Amino acid sequence: MNDEVMVSIQCITYNHEKYIRKALEGFVMQKTNFRFEVIVHDDASTDRTADIIREYAEKYDFIKPIFQKENQYSKNIPFGIKYIYPLMKGKYIAYCEGDDYWTDPNKLQILYDYMVIHPNCSMCCHAYENIEANTEKIIGEVHTLEEDGTITIQKAIKYDNPSQLASQMFRRECVINKPAIYNNRGIGDYTVLLYAATLGEIHYINKIMARHRVASDGSWTNRVYRNKNKRIEHDNRMIEFLNDFDAYYNNVYHSYVMDKIEDYVFDILLSKGEYKKIIVHKNFNTLSNMRKILIIIGIIFPNLIDYVFEKRDFQ
């Protein structure tokens, strides 16, 4: 086996004591004909997450931890650029956050083999299962395509992230050397996906090889999606980024970008409860029948329906 590290795995974690062991076991069980490393960034967890990471790092030299003394996320510090990327040696970069985990011991090898044989491939991903965060009950399978194939840039723009982060592997330059418009946007991994889509093929493998916990403790869903003000802030940042993206590429993807911007405009209307504007928006018919009825009632009784939407999720 060559001594060169071919794949770097990024694992970011915070207060994942209940989950992190499964993530680390998913790395340890990988069977490859190449060397890989795991950069685990613990963002000053207040539970036993760091202790569990130390346990694995002492046993496996390819697990390389970073332990923060102060939470970087809360300070809006881009810890990927500042702390993680400088340590990465791999030609390819894979991801798995501390509350998700890999289920197939051949996952890394399968993605690596495809990307080596197809140098135009900028990102490779696969199917996965959604599970309940704490019970691990399987909620459903997620198949981006019906069979192995290429995810178009139109689909990448429209669906935010047409595959889950734990399923993705990128060429190094997609992550490390992004143009300035992609950096420090505060919108998650969407920027990496779009940059990869402009550089080459995004290839999908229709094989389940990971599990994603839905609404786990400290997840984006709980921190942002279910907080009205933070959700609106996120939507506005997405609109700003998409406009910058459109200008940077001289409107080559303009129709796809404008369609996606309208999705965020609609989501902002929903968050604000602007029911009269919602029913005339083109996305109104994409809602469930129950939510349509509630929104129509909301035109007459807005306070009542605001209360209903706060108590239940009709998304």
**Helix content, binned percent:** 40-55%
CATH class category name of the largest domain = Alpha Beta
The CATH superfamily of the largest domain is known as Spore Coat Polysaccharide Biosynthesis Protein SpsA, Chain A
Decide which structural class fits the backbone.
alpha/beta
CATH topology group of the largest domain: Spore Coat Polysaccharide Biosynthesis Protein SpsA, Chain A
Just name the CATH architecture of the largest domain: Alpha-Beta Complex
How many angstroms separate the termini?
49 Å
Helical region count? 13
Q: What's the total count of β strands?
A: 10
The radius of gyration over CA amounts to 20 Å
Write a structural description.
The structure is a single chain. With 315 residues, the chain is an alpha/beta fold. The chain folds into 2 domains: 5-214, Alpha-Beta Complex (Spore Coat Polysaccharide Biosynthesis Protein SpsA, Chain A); 226-311, no CATH class. It has helices at residues 20-28, 49-59, 79-84, 107-117, 153-158, 172-176, 190-199, 220-225, 228-248, 254-272, 275-278, 289-300, 302-311; strands at 5-13, 35-42, 63-67, 92-95, 101-102, 121-132, 138-142, 149-151, 169-171, 201-214. Strands 1, 2, 3, 4, 5, 6, 7, 8, 9 and 10 form a 10-stranded mixed beta sheet that branches. Helix 2 (49-59) links the parallel strand 2 and strand 3 (63-67). The relative contact order is 0.11.
